[in-house]
Structure prediction request, 1185 residues.
Amino acid sequence: MNQSAPNYYLPQPTRWPVVGSVALLLMAAGAVMWMNGAAAGPWVVAIGAIALATMIFRWFGQVAGESEAGRFNRQVDASFRWGMSWFIFSEVMFFAAFFGALFYVRVLSVPDLGSIESRLLWPEFNSAWPSAGPSFTGRFTPMAAWGIPAINTLLLLSSGATVTVAHWRLKENRRGPLSLWLLLTIVLGATFLALQAWEYGHAYSELNLKLSTGVYGATFFMLTGFHGFHVTIGVIMLTVILFRCLAGHFRPDHHFAFEAVSWYWHFVDVVWLLLFIFVYWI
Amino acid sequence: MTSVQTHHGDHAHHPAGVMRWVTTTNHKDIGTLYLWFSFAMFIVGGIMALVIRAELFQPGMQIVQPEFFNQMTTLHGLIMVFGAIMPAFVGFANWQIPMMIGAADMAFPRMNNWSFWLLPAAAVLLVSSMFVPGGAAGTGWTLYAPLTVQMGPGMDLTIFAVHILGMSSILGSINIITTVLNLRAPGMSLMRMPMFCWTWLITAYLLIAVMPVLAGAVTMTLTDRHFGTSFFSAAGGGDPVLYQHIFWFFGHPEVYIIAIPAFGVISQVIPAFARKPLFGYGSMVYATASIAILSFIVWAHHMYTVGMPITGQLYFMYATMLIAVPTGVKVFNWVATMWRGSLSFETPMLFALGFLFLFTLGGFSGLILSLTAVDVQVHDTYYVVAHFHYVMVAGALFAAFAGVYFWLPKWTGRMYDERLGKAHFWLTLVFFNMTFFVQHFLGLAGMPRRIPDYALQFTEFNQISSIGAFGFGLSQLLFLYVVLKTIRSGDRAAQRPWEGADSLEWTHLPTPAPYHSFETPPLVK
Amino acid sequence: MTRRVASRTIGIGIGAALAAFAGAAAAAYQWNLAPGVTRSSQGVYDLHNIMMGIILVIFLAVFGVLSYAIYAHRKSRGHQAAQFHENTTVEMIWTVIPFFILITMAWPATKTLLAMRDSSNPDLTVKVTGYQWKWGYDYLKGEGEGISFMSVLATTPDQIYGNAPKSEHYLLEVDNRLVVPVGKKVRLLTTANDVIHSWFVPELGVKQDANPGFVRDTFFRAEREGIYRGQCAELCGKDHGFMPVVVEVVSAEKYAAWVAAQRARMAAAADDPNKKWELAELKARGEKVYGQNCVACHQANGQGVKGAFPALDGSKIVNGPAQGQIALVLAGKPGTAMASFKQLSDTEIAAVITYTRNSWGNKAGDAVQPADVKAQRK
Ligand code: HEA
Ligand code: HEA
Ligand code: CUA
Ligand SMILES: [Cu+2]
Prediction:
């Protein structure tokens, strides 16, 4: 394995991308069928999802193989770093759209619906946040911050720490502790997800807080839901990394994939902090 | 090209035929795919424009039903923006950036392939939406809520198409940013890169910042449609105007995503035919960056009539007007580049000059629109349609034509037919103005956009516009002919057919450019 | 193509374009904004002219220089290229000067805008509601308070589809105009029932979006009597092009007379909600209501538009128990174009439902009474 392959690595032609495109096409078409009541919808989505998973697995597997075979020189490594950073930036902007929506409804639209002029349309609306809007007739209880969400905050923050410790161990080339710390991170992440799932169940069954509970429900579930989805992906990626560690991949000076996943994990962490503050707390 | 070449060495694996194009990881192949895809979409979107113009040839409903007209407008806008113009410039980026900075290929060749092959998937979704019950989305390309909530399954297909288009743009941008930042040849400092690379670097940042936001907007639309959320419904505490804010936070930078690479092409073409270096390179870079930054803080100039507070209107008016300053710097620099040059007027230069005149005109009408009080009168009228076709057709599309004529010799090794190229330019120029200049008057007189039928006093200008549109469309057949003729039987081109062109692809690479650009990086002094 | 063919094609192109422009110029078409009849519209008109002047000067300056270069610095005249490529002073100048030009432009633009936004102290307040695809007007305050009506396109489908000659105000005429007194400040509160519409009358200098669920305001004070026409200016679905706005500005006396007439009409039209109607009577009334409210989507033959609007002819809901359809028409179906029609009176709803249940192939045979509707309102 040499760190300084002479040239920038240029891969052979590949068929995985087009498989990925067809997979996404199937998933999209299937989802449209599903949402509009066609019976075949779920099956088409499933086929697409399997194709996509295969494609990701094989494609990334190929890259991991090339990496272990020493094909990547420092310049390639730097490319990966740039690539991952800007990918995470694009994810940040995706969340920004939903945070923007949350701030907008809290600061502008809900108060506006309670304004004098709006009396014309919604005579009885009392515009205090949390609100499910003027035509929501039932009652719901907003999610409290200091129960499970606070515990979840602790879990995620400590998982950020454990993944960092794992990274240190990797740099010291202490493989045993590396895997253990990584495993601990995964367990923390999975616990987070389990608690989150429980919390959703609680919201649906006891708090009457649903996706359809006006704009509070919409922002709550979409923000926490997309975050949870990202945590799930993070846990999967961490698991892959754990297996790669166990398979002897990575060296103290060559472990971009590990770092990429840990960056991703920290990003998920930071998003959670913002969620905790703006969705649950204030 | 004799250097040690270890890694893409074994050429035996390269598939031939269709599979070559499906599996390719070569930036030139992918660039070619992008360019042909873009042209195909231009024709599809153009035919839709012709349906619109045919229906508008005279008052009354003659050819299509109103709901189908709305679908045409929507698909025309979406296909032209996401299918024709953006991929065209990504095609240029793929071909040119590695050659211009002295790299072998793009930073992530496999991902590059995916960025392209996502586009046909999105196009299939978009076009198939016409054939589902209820037809395509009839909401305008802006997909405003809550009209979107009323649409049929075609809307869902559109939403997923937008998701996939967004993925394609994000992956493509990551590739471009990484290539430019990490793969420059030794000695090629950022401030020595050809202007085209700079414009794409900046554009790529715009893309990764705003495409995810658009994805968020259409995702909210999707959940409002099917999963009971109330982001855009007052009844649940949301707001239809929220959609507009999110959309335009994407939408305004989007128009510069279209314009800035066009600026890049023009900045290569003008110096080459003025035989004089680009004037004010540094200020060009700063101006482009300023345009990009300002573009994030002006979005609500598309929403002056939604009823925002007057302070909001004033702020967005002032901020929007400011963009004229850096854009002006660019225009002045181009003029100064030509000043006291040694000008010749081959087809690329003609298109660049056409761009310069007409884009500036479109910029001026933009400035008129930025004045809130005036916009109240002309918002959502044909004045706006005229404005954006000046900046996007006479702006971006003309620049793309300039770029094709400019680089075609390098790409194919053959010269295009100069006479036919010039004919294409003059026809395009005349018919363009015939189609769109009169639309200013229609708008000023109060003709709303997105209507399939109109009051009698608008008849004559509409007829002129419709005739112009058909002429414009036919002229593009000539373009297709010129390109095909060049590929088939053009005269052999020299390594550097344009005297004034001095970026690496002209000075360091043979014509046609080899399959792998720089296997060993050149040393740039 | 040979050179001759190419140049001939160009010639034909240019010729066609010039001929077309000349044709247009010969007739008197509107080339510019309408000065209009309000301070706002006149303010905008003047502002736009000033701005066009400034822009024209800049355009001539920039392209004067460019044209000179194109003429004088061309290679074919043997001009040698100079090699300068920057000049900080010049670059500073052409950054700063446009900035000052913009400030000069912003000043009048701000003044005009401030004047356009002051809707305080109105003489008359009217609520304007956008529906797919018509406008509803409710006089809330001022002379005429309590008047309320719908305003629907009056151009016939025959004219639109070319089966009848087009009238003078093709597409710009309605059954009931918004009537307001001259010289009085009229405040409009805009809102919408279904999707976004936009209330736009160029000669009044007003364009204001009507957002569903929100109330926005604007105003105008027309200085001259007359009839002013405009159109909905926000894409609102299929018939977006067919929902004009017509405002009739009349003298104070005429306005008073109009108000009195409206009052009389409303009193006469007010139905006794307890009246028992005959089937035939209700059906006849229902046909009118259908023509004004439902026909745009469900079509005159009850067949709807395939894929977009369901057929009522043969519909399960229409042929099922009346309660089901009453509930649907009262509440609408959220998330679809089928809006709530609760703004119609009990009698109107009863009539239209009776009509749909007894028309085309539907043969329910019963009459739905206003009292049934009333019972189902919440
Ligand atoms: C390539 C795309 C592109 C570009 C570059 C621009 C450039 C500009 N646009 Fe345009 N615009 C669109 C594409 C574009 N636009 C589209 C697609 C829409 C409609 C979307 C929809 O609704 O569907 C739109 C709509 C639009 C609106 C909303 C209109 C409405 O819906 O009511 C406004 C309002 O402010 C606006 C303003 C501007 C301004 C101020 C610029 C400026 O950047 C222009 C700056 C340039 C100049 C001013 C000329 C050169 C400068 C000089 C020579 C210097 C000296 C000049 C002075 C000091 C005056 N645009
Ligand atoms: C960069 C993008 C782009 C481009 C290139 C174009 C190109 C054209 N546009 Fe487009 N347009 C938009 C972007 C673009 N447009 C957008 C964003 C909207 C707003 C949509 C909305 O409101 O939501 C819009 C809306 C729009 C409208 C307003 C519709 C409405 O409000 O209802 C009109 C009307 O005239 C129009 C016309 C045209 C015409 C005639 C061309 C021509 O330039 C097209 C010419 C090309 C061809 C004709 C095809 C190629 C040639 C052939 C296939 C040869 C065969 C030809 C013949 C047989 C004649 N466009
Ligand atoms: Cu109502 Cu357009
Ligand atoms: Cu804009």
Observations:
- Chain C touches chain B through 118 residues (CB under 8 Å).
- The radius of gyration of chain C is 29 Å.
